Amino acid sequence: AAMSRKGVKLLVDSLSRSVKHFNKGEVECLIKLFDTLVARSSSHFAGAGFDRTVFRDTLHSAFGMTDDVVLDRVFSTFDRDNNGCITVVEWVEGLAVLLRGTLEEKMKYCFQVYDLNGDGYISREEMFQMLKNSLLIQPADEEPDEGIKDLVEIALKKMDYDHDGKLSFTDFEKAVRDENLLLEAFGPCLPDIK
């Protein structure tokens, strides 16, 4: 069920106004891509959107993002109403941050990706999960978990400004403003800008 011409035009107008990082032409292209993905997904969302699998494949082929755990988290940040379906608005708004976001927006986004249980903090366990997942396995003679635990402690030392043993958004933001490279400290969740 593709949208009518008029529907598309209204949507383009409204999204170009609300999503400040894309111009009309870009929004139009993203909606076309969205329609193609919906058609390909033949999902049970009746043309309203597409599911995790299509999302994962698309980010994989478009941005070379390969990590399943990270892609699942990215899906969750896009899927704002948490219904397993990416709608056209979620798609365009999510990509705006991913591709053109300000540092502020990207910090919020990365923090959300790393905050696995959504409680507003990145805990030791969450850092451990994300790092374990994004690092290549070390040589057999080394206990890989120990190395990761050390990294978690180093990250906390560097980023946990209020010393409560976990990272709040305030901690994260402060650390990233000090050192931009820390934006993706716990795993690559932004596309390589090519």
UniProtKB/TrEMBL annotation:
The keyword Transferase does not apply. GO terms for molecular function: calcium ion binding. SUPFAM superfamilies: EF-hand. The keyword Calcium applies. CDD domains: EFh. Keywords: Calcium, Metal-binding, Repeat. It comes from the Eukaryota. InterPro entries: EF-hand-dom_pair, EF_Hand_1_Ca_BS, EF_hand_dom, Recoverin. Signal peptide: none annotated. It holds the Pfam family EF-hand_7. Residues 66-101, 102-137, 147-182 form the EF-hand domain. This is EFCB1 protein. It comes from Climacteris rufus. The gene is Efcab1.
